[in-house]
Amino acid sequence: MADFKNKKIYLAGHNGMVGSAINRELTKNGYNNLLVKSYYELDLTRQENVEKFFSNEKPGIVIIAAAKVGGILANNTYRAEYIYDNIMIGTNIINSAYKTGVEKLIFLGSSCIYPKLAPQPLKEEYLLSDYLEYTNEPYAIAKIAGIKLCENYYQQYGCNFFSAMPTNLYGPNDNFDLETSHVLPALIRKFHEAKVNNKTEVVLWGTGKPKREFLYVDDLAEAILFLLENVNAKDLYDNGISQINVGTGEDLTIDELAKKISNIVGYNSKIVYDSSKPDGTPRKLMDVSRLHKLGWKHKTSLEDGIKLAYEFFKK
């Protein structure tokens, strides 16, 4: 197990749901040399700013949790921003990390990098094997670009840069805005407001039939720490894969999820589906057997995780 506790670590995106969870996990485990103060907030889409930051600070370790993220509506509406911002964030940080001799870098992607109709569960080697889901194609292409940057900086320069692909995440500091949020936090908010306002029904997008997998964000943070301490780029690339999946290996339908959340929130009225709205990818279940073999598994059940996320939302 590598000990990076004395290394300077740049955690990009530390204010977001994912970054703040990783920040908590690192701090809890004695990693106190973190570049996360407000002074370090910089526009990651600006190459000059990022290069200057790396040149001044010279971090030893980099974790990229920064991204422009959202659900189907946001991804499909702001397509140009989603591809531009995310490509620039990944490109600027990864290239600056190479130029300043960063010892290890972990880039966080998303399960949407896999083809829309890929076999289930999604194995790492299915990357680029078919067409992407249209609604989040710009975001997925930006994330694939980051994965391939890490892979090719390893192939050409020997950089210890690799990528982790989390499944759908939720938890403290999630985005509960109905315009831009993902499905789980959106459902928490919809059912809570329906309960408070005594609504007789809640209308949800699509058919309720697509299946999704969900990972509590603090479990992801534990997985990132595990990868930081135990896995290197050569462990992945020399075995012919470009990235490693992080998830639970379990999924459920959106309808099952909606019923579970309405039950936890205490909303007991009608759920209606608007099938004129898009469903997105039919199924997105991650094959997490590689990570399990390396020795990491998630701890938080979906039921417990939703309860914790709902408590955070109410606060």
- State the distance separating the first and last CA atoms: 38 Å
Quickly give the structural class.
alpha/beta
Report the count of strand segments.
13
- What's the main sheet like? 6 strands, parallel
Q: Residue share in helices?
A: 40-55%
| CATH architecture title of one domain | 3-Layer(aba) Sandwich
Give the topology string: H per helix, E per strand. EHEHEHHEHEEHEEEHHEEHEEHH
Q: Return the CATH class of one domain.
A: Alpha Beta
Taking Cα atoms only, what radius of gyration do you get, to the nearest Å? 19 Å
Strand order of the largest sheet: 2-1-3-4-5-10
CATH topology (level 3) name of one domain: Rossmann fold
Mean pLDDT: 94
Strand content: 5-15%
Helical run tally:
11
Shape estimate: globular
> CATH homologous superfamily of one domain?
NAD(P)-binding Rossmann-like Domain
Contiguous uncertain segments of 5+ residues? none
Describe the structure.
The protein is an alpha/beta fold and 315 residues long. The chain has a domain at 9-173 and 213-249 and 284-300: Rossmann fold (3-Layer(aba) Sandwich). Helix content is 43%, strand content 15%. The chain is built from 11 helices and 13 strands. The protein has helices at 17-28, 47-57, 72-77, 79-99, 137-157, 183-196, 217-230, 233-237, 254-265, 289-294, 302-314; strands at 9-12, 34-35, 61-64, 104-108, 161-166, 168-170, 201-205, 211-212, 214-216, 243-246, 252-253, 270-274, 283-284. The protein has a 6-stranded parallel sheet with strand order 2-1-3-4-5-10, sandwiched between helices. A 3-stranded mixed sheet has the order 11-8-13. Strands 6-9 form a two-stranded parallel ribbon.
